[in-house]
Each structure stands twice: as structure tokens, then as C-alpha cells.
Design a protein that fits this description.
Layout lengths: L5 H17 L9 H25 L18 H10 L3 H14 L8 H7 L10 H6 L1 H15 L24 H13 L4 H11 L4 H11 L8 H14 L16 H10 L6 H15 L3 H11 L12
């Protein structure tokens, strides 16, 4: 299938032209080659986001939720299974784990599988276990880190490649898990946490996202990108009724560079950049995550299309 078919490409070209005619110029894509490359990244980003709803609409093998199954375990599908069973806390916990560790290019979900599955011990680190005693998890991780880090077939995902497995360092996995558990249990669970966000925001999904984004700053090692990835995945899976209302350029590197390039925005405030990107998303009829993701990938090779898997 040609995911960048001519009809779809022309559709976005028309919408970009309308934006420029009615709102602001986009100097970074005045070159037709750069414009085509940006559109292809938009299309890819839309499809990556739609991927979650596609797999949620299909039957999922129960083994996808079994951390002892080395071949089939998949934390995203596991979260969707738990959601369908009404295990909301477990589903959200899995989303946290898949965000924290990410999917490695070669090792795939090994870190998530082995840590969530407690290296085959019972009971494994399900939400009831971890929330009851996060300090016990840190003790276990301290004792197990050497084995988890064995061999060359290991690693965090691309968005988390500077994350540490350490049980004790301030920005290591042990502290990330303990502060995450504290954040959630401090609000009496995920459901109540998300309800509080909605109550504080007048039930506006974008304002609720903003409230959670700020509140989540207590979770160690989850800076701008970690929070954005975690919360957008909660929204895509339907575990929380939230959606980003901004690209959250402040504190970003790739998206901010992409914004500066496409907007020609030297000297613009962050707020002005965000306002223009919000309008751009409205004209293209896409989620703000599409804009964030597209800009991040496009700026790397703005004149040459490269597919980025995530």
C-alpha cells in the first residue's frame, strides 16, 4: 500500500496552502521538496496514532498480556486487554512501564517484560503488588539489575535512551517507579487521579491533559517528553479522556527545532509559536501530537523523507 498516495498528498497541500493564505506563512516549506517531506511525516504520524485504535478494534491473543511469554508479550496490547476486563489500574500501570522503558530496536519489549514479570518470580509486579510496596520493588531491582542488564540484546527505547536502570539514583528506574506509585496512590488510584484532572479543568480534555502534565512533574526521570508520551498514550488507548492542546515546545529539542524551521520563528515567543501550531493543527484536522511528532521527525532531514518507526 502506498501510504503517501497522490490524493492524500494533494489533500494536505491544499490545507497547507489555505493556512498560509488565511493565517501565516510557513517559510520552512516554501521549497516544494521540503513541503512534500513534511506532508509525508504528517501522514506517517497520523497512521502511528491510528495504530492504537486499529489494534484495539481487533481480537487480541490473551498471551499478549503474559510477561512469561517471550515471543508474544506486548505491553500495549496487554494494557488493552486489561482495559477490556475492567482492570483500569493495571492497564495504566502497563502504559507507564512501556513509556518508561520504551521499545528497543532489537530487544523490543524485553525490559518491560522481565521487570513487569519479575524475571519469572511470583507474584510478578502487577499494580496491586507494586502499589502495596514500591520500596520492595526497589530492593528487588537492586538485586536483579545485573541479570536484567546481561548481554548485548538489551536497551531502552529511542525516547528513553538516556534513562538509567539503577534502583537508587535520583533519576533511575527505582525512583521513577516509586514516585509514580506515590503520585497515583496519593490520588487514590488512576481513575480518581483522572477524575480530579477533569474536575479541575471543567471536563475539558485539553485542560485536563495540561493539569496532569503539570501534576506529573513529581515523577522522577519523566521530563517533558516522558510526560507527553505517557499522557498521549493514555488518551489514545481511551484510558483517560484527555488530549494535548499544545505541542509543549518548552523543554523540547526536536519539536522546537522543527517549529523554528517551519515557522521561520526566530524571535517569536513560545506562546506565539504554540498559537500558530494550534491553528496549523486545526487546518490540517489533526491531533496536536501529530504536529509534535511530525515536526520532530521532519526537521532531522527536512529535504529528504525518512520513515521513523516511533
Amino acid at each position: 500500500m502506498n501510504r503517501h498516495n497522490s490524493v492524500l498528498m494533494q489533500h494536505y497541500k491544499n490545507l497547507l496552502a489555505l493556512y498560509e493564505a488565511q493565517e501565516y506563512p510557513l517559510p520552512g516549506i516554501s521549497n516544494p521538496l521540503h513541503r512534500d517531506t513534511f506532508i509525508k511525516q504528517v501522514i506517517d504520524s497520523v497512521r502511528r496514532i491510528e495504530y492504537v485504535s486499529r489494534i484495539a478494534s481487533r481480537p487480541i491473543c490473551p498471551n499478549r498480556a503474559d510477561p512469561q511469554d517471550e515471543e508474544l508479550f506486548d505491553p500495549l496490547r496487554a494494557a488493552l486487554i486489561h482495559k477490556s476486563l475492567g482492570n483500569h489500574d493495571e492497564a495504566c500501570w502497563l502504559i507507564f512501564l512501556l513509556t518508561h522503558f520504551g521499545r528497543h530496536r532489537y530487544a523490543k519489549w524485553r525490559y518491560v517484560r522481565e521487570i513487569y514479570g519479575k524475571l519469572g518470580e511470583q507474584p510478578y509486579w502487577s499494580w496491586p503488588e507494586i502499589s502495596a510496596d514500591p520500596q520492595a520493588f526497589r530492593t528487588w531491582l537492586r538485586q536483579s539489575t545485573h541479570h536484567i542488564l546481561r548481554g548485548d540484546d538489551r536497551g531502552f527505547g529511542n525516547h528513553r535512551k538516556f534513562t538509567s536502570m539503577d534502583a537508587d539514583k535520583p533519576n533511575g528506574t527505582g525512583m521513577a517507579v516509586q514516585t509514580y506509585v506515590g503520585w497515583v496512590t496519593g490520588h487514590d488510584g488512576h481513575s480518581q487521579l483522572f477524575q480530579t484532572a477533569l474536575d479541575q479543568s471543567g471536563a475539558d480534555p485539553k485542560q485536563a491533559f495540561e493539569w496532569l502534565y503539570r501534576s506529573m512533574s513529581v515523577v522522577r526521570s519523566f521530563a517533558r517528553l516522558g510526560k507527553f508520551d505517557y499522557l498521549t498514550m493514555l488518551g489514545k488507548t481511551g484510558l483517560a479522556p484527555i488530549a494535548p492542546g499544545l505541542t509543549y515546545l518548552a523543554g523540547s529539542s526536536g519539536p522546537r527545532s522543527g517549529a523554528d524551521l517551519i515557522l521561520g520563528s526566530a524571535g517569536f515567543s513560545i506562546r506565539e509559536k504554540e498559537n500558530r501550531l494550534v491553528l496549523l493543527a486545526q487546518y490540517l484536522n489533526v491531533n496536536m501530537q501529530v504536529i509534535e511528532d511530525s515536526l520532530c521527525n521532519w526537521h532531522k532531514t527536512s529535504g529528504t523523507y525518512i520513515y521513523f518507526s516511533g
